[in-house]
Amino acid sequence: MPGRCFVIQLLTGQGLPPGDAELTLGESYAKREGAEPMEMLQSRLKFYTTQGVISTPGKYGELFDSLPNSVPELVDVVQGLVLHAYWVGHYGVSLTEEQREHASARHMENILAIILNQDAAPLTVPRAHEKRFFGTCRDFSLLLTSALRHKGIPARCRCGFARYFMPDSYEDHWIVEYWDEKEGNWVGVDAQLDGLQREKLHISFDPLRLPEGQFISGAEAWKRWRAGEVDPNKFGIADLRGYPFIFGNLIRDLAALNKMELLPWDLWGLMKKDKLDESDYILADKIADLILADSEELFDLYESNEDLKASECPVELRLYSGEDN
């Protein structure tokens, strides 16, 4: 974890509980029941303002300087650069073989190279549909997370499941959480849901402030399954469903929280086992508890366990490439 010197600015009182208007965000946060020590929170926020090995824009970092500073404007930029490879038919696009491979670009620097190779205009200029980066929800989330971190806004990718793509189903999905300094909490954002998708999916909520329950993390899905509250076969994508998918997204979420935002089909460590044993279930329960508690222990657990820690390029299990609608 980074040095503990992140400074939280004094607020005007907007968004604070009654009587807290004269407090800093840190003081207001500390008054909450069960709040973690402020030193730990500040260290966590500082951690999420810095890039990881996947999210760094590398040699293209200067291009982020001219990006807008607000979350809604940054989401507009992302949606002007990226299209979901499985939604392209709705935009009148047919992918070439080369474009089908965009989603394997993995690193932010590689994604930006592909975007600029097709159109060298500033990133604030929306690309024609056929000249965008064709990725997945993970790529929308990674680009927004990278831009937010560049602007000094704490941000992290989350891996889990969304309830708004298919009826009575939890579909494999990635979103972004950023720290709302005024409210003193994490806010979920779905950077993929542009106007066309919101219309097609009949989305009635604001994707820039995801309501509770519309997206659940891999950790929450695992806990619900272990408690017998959900049918595991409703979790996944296409024909790949069941508790192994929930387990996989639990581990991917843990990695993403450690700034290792890997591909949705990457496999490593425990995910490559044919069958989990009792000790694996106990470990998974612990991981889920730490994530849901937003505990700093999840960093030590990840770093100290070779079955959990991922390299930048684990084994890829390609699901499918295409233009599924």
Q: Please, could you describe this protein's structure?
A:
With 325 residues, the protein is an alpha+beta fold. It contains 11 helices and 10 strands. The strands form 3 sheets. Strands 3, 4, 5, 6, 7 and 8 form a 6-stranded mixed β-sheet that branches. Strands 1-2 form a two-stranded parallel sheet. It has a two-stranded antiparallel sheet with strand order 9-10. The radius of gyration is 19 Å and the shape is globular.
How big is the Rg? 19 Å
Helix segment tally: 11
Residue runs with pLDDT of under 50 for 5 or more positions: 1-34, 319-325
Mean pLDDT: 88
Structural domain tally: 2
Helix content estimate: 25-40%
How far do the termini sit from each other? 41 Å
Q: How many β-strands, per DSSP?
A: 10
**Largest sheet, strands/sense/barrel:** 6 strands, mixed
